[in-house]
Every structure is written in C-alpha cells, then in structure tokens.
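JOB MANIFEST
job_type = single_chain_structure
chain_count = 1
residues = 191
[input]
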Amino acid sequence: MCSWNSSFTPDIANCAAGNAGPASYSPTNTPSNPVVCIDWCDAYAYCAGVGKRLCGKIGGGSVGFFDYANIAISQWYAACTSNGADAYPYGATYSPTVCNGADAGNGAAVIVGSMLSCQSSVAGYGGVYDMSGNVWEWEDGCDGVSGSSDDCRVRGGAFSHSGSDLDCSYGDGGGPRDYINYGIGFRCCSD
C-alpha cells in the first residue's frame, strides 16, 4: 500500500518550508511534543512497528471514508466521544481553552498531555489526551486502498482551529497519503 514511500523519518525541513509554519517537533529539542511532518504511511508503519495500529475500524482494519463519525465503527470517534456521551473529549459543549486550539492562544503544538483537562471524565475514557486540538491525527480511513494520492482523513483539529473544527464529529479529508504538514501527527490504537 505504501511501496512508493522510501523514508519513515519526519521531514521537518521540507514540512515547515512547504507549509509556511513552524515544525513544533524535533526528536532532540521537543521530544515530548506530537510527532508531525509525517505522511499517512509513516504513521501507519510506526504504529505497526510498536505492535499497535493507526486508529481505524473497531475490531481492526480501515474505517470507511464516510464512517468517521459512527461510534459503532470508528475507533477514533468512539474514544473521542466517550462512546457517544459527549461532542468533545471533555464534555458536551465547546470550552475555548480546555484543549490546545486557537482560543488557547499557544499558536503551536504543546507537550502531549500537558493540557490536563483535555480528556474525558467518563469512566474508562480518562487519560486519553489531546483528541481535540494540538495537532490533527491521521486516521486509517482513506478513499482508496493503495495510491499515494488516496485522500485520507485527519481527526481532532489542530492548534490553529476553534469551535466546531475541534468537535469529535468533524472529519477533514486531510490529504493524500504522501502529504506532510506541521499540524498533522497521529495516534496509535490497540484492540
């Protein structure tokens, strides 16, 4: 599926230059920030390499491109909404400064888990941080199965978004599998 991808290293230099923004991840300078400047294939390979998988369909595999807001199908969405209990990972209504969105005023990604209230209070879903804001996350949900130009979803919004763009049900088309951006990272899931 990713045979064209020859490197699995974050492309920090080209990412920042190509997207007119600061790369907020560096393995030496900011190792606790979300890994960004990786394409979908890099995220998929990393998750597989650590014995997990890029979040996708509950029970395994890819989530259908248009099933991204279905708690019975999308692993990412079920976790973000605490299995449908809330619209945001922390509650039913938008709270401007709970997560790292534009209204928080940070202007860049922050250390993973540093915004302590940006998690669920529902039993069994706490401790999963930053599903809203900080950086978009690649999802195993693409509109094709093998090409570098297949459009793949990103979830959760980023530090430059606010309001409904940070709602768990918002699922941007993201970009092609080979797209990199300083505002897109990933999350690994397990069954």
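[summary]
Helices lie at 12-18, 40-49, 75-80.
The chain has one domain: 11-191.
exit_status = 0
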